[in-house]
Amino acid sequence: MSNPPMSRRRSGERPSGERPPAPTLSLRPLGFTPAEIEGIVALYASNPGYCRASGEYDPDGVDAERVEADLREEAAAEGSEVLVVRDAEGRLAGLICLLDRHPGDGLPWIGLLLVGGALHRTGVGRRLVGLVEERFRDEGRSGIRLAVLENNPAALAFWTSLGWEEFDRRRDRAMDRPCVVMHKRLG
């Protein structure tokens, strides 16, 4: 059976396989207010799979002081940005850490992308990655990289679905965990 023409579809109905419109998102530097830190802690807690894979946080009791200290350290690093992601209504939707220029390869890197657990599979992560890629493409960058923990197959599947390719395998510097380094060309 073929899909009805647009004019005959009911409001909000899409042909099977057609994606919903991309969510509107805004990115702003993390302000480190108590309310923002509380929201970020809830964001980590809503991602128990990531917490377990990383080994850094207990998903049943994410330590706010540790999260804040880790993010302050990240934000203080030269060329690093810690950005909160908000939806069109101003609700916290995610967190992203970016490095403008990796000391080893000179490319920008995504250090962390965390989307609220309730927002998984809604297009928020895909849209956020698109914004980051667009930003670096507009700056004339040739590519971007990130590392995915080998024990996080869901994250590896997500990045692969967005056209990122395995570039290398190595251990991360902070905790010596096995990672898949991924690369995306920004043509």
Can you give a write-up of this model?
The protein is of the alpha+beta class and about 190 residues long. The protein is built from five helices and seven strands. It has helices at about 35-45, 50-55, 65-75, 125-140, 155-160, and strands at about 25-30, 80-85, 90-100, 110-115, 145-150, 165-170, 180-185. It has a seven-stranded mixed β-sheet with strand order 1-2-3-4-5-7-6, with helices on both faces. It is globular.
Set down the secondary structure blueprint:
Layout: E1 25-29, H1 34-45, H2 48-54, H3 64-76, E2 80-87, E3 92-99, E4 109-115, H4 124-138, E5 143-149, H5 153-161, E6 165-171, E7 178-185
Parallel strand pairs: 4-5
Antiparallel strand pairs: 1-2, 2-3, 3-4, 5-7, 6-7
Q: Which structural class should the secondary elements be placed in?
A: alpha+beta
Order of helices and strands: EHHHEEEHEHEE
Helix fraction by DSSP (H/I, runs of at least 4): 25-40%
Mean pLDDT across residues: 89
Biggest β-sheet: strands ordered side by side in the sheet:
1-2-3-4-5-7-6
3D shape: globular
Total of helices: 5
Q: How many strand segments?
A: 7
Rg result? 18 Å
Beta-strand portion reads: 25-35%
Low-confidence stretches: 1-14
Our measurement of the CA-to-CA distance between the termini, rounded to an integer number of angstroms, reads 38 Å
Question: Main sheet, how many strands, which sense, barrel?
Answer: 7 strands, mixed
